[in-house]
Amino acid sequence: IFNGTLIWKIRDYKRRKAEAVASKTLSLYSQPFYTGYFGYKMCARVYLNGDGMGKGTHLSLFFVVMRGEYDALLPWPFKQKVTLMLMDQGPARKHLGDAFKPDPNSSSFRRPTGEMNIASGCPLFVAQTVLENGTYIKDDTIFIKVTVDTSDLPDPFHWL
């Protein structure tokens, strides 16, 4: 949880997808995760029935920078490479992923003034036909992995 990696287990896929189709619950937020104990606070947001261009046809997956306790000590805008992935639970392990470097001019990656910034990511992350006909759903559960590259982050204690 403090190493820049999130593994998000989403149970009850069928029920949650039906709620999304019925417009009861359009999106779900993951638990927060961090680049380090004193690092950036982030979460993932998923639309099981899609959002924007992906509405009704895709699972849409987004990354969210949240307001954290140590934001005053961190460099802004957020510049770390983000990898979004849907985990294949079958033996082939054909995980589906997409990676991006944040746009430094986007408000999504500025220091948050509210609880969280506007999400940024992939409205067309995976087609529902691919998701529902493969081995990505097992026991009515999907796994989403989000990885933030922490290799080039400054040590928060470098000024001590």
Automatic annotation (TrEMBL):
<dbReference type="GO" id="GO:0009898">
    <property type="term" value="C:cytoplasmic side of plasma membrane"/>
</dbReference>
<dbReference type="GO" id="GO:0005164">
    <property type="term" value="F:tumor necrosis factor receptor binding"/>
</dbReference>
<dbReference type="InterPro" id="IPR008974">
    <property type="entry name" value="TRAF-like"/>
</dbReference>
<dbReference type="InterPro" id="IPR049342">
    <property type="entry name" value="TRAF1-6_MATH_dom"/>
</dbReference>
<keyword id="KW-0832">Ubl conjugation</keyword>
<protein>
    <submittedName>
        <fullName>TNF receptor associated factor 3</fullName>
    </submittedName>
</protein>
<keyword id="KW-0053">Apoptosis</keyword>
<feature type="domain" description="MATH">
    <location>
        <begin position="3"/>
        <end position="148"/>
    </location>
</feature>
<dbReference type="Pfam" id="PF21355">
    <property type="entry name" value="TRAF-mep_MATH"/>
</dbReference>
<dbReference type="GO" id="GO:0043122">
    <property type="term" value="P:regulation of canonical NF-kappaB signal transduction"/>
</dbReference>
<keyword id="KW-1017">Isopeptide bond</keyword>
<keyword id="KW-0175">Coiled coil</keyword>
<dbReference type="InterPro" id="IPR002083">
    <property type="entry name" value="MATH/TRAF_dom"/>
</dbReference>
<dbReference type="GO" id="GO:0006915">
    <property type="term" value="P:apoptotic process"/>
</dbReference>
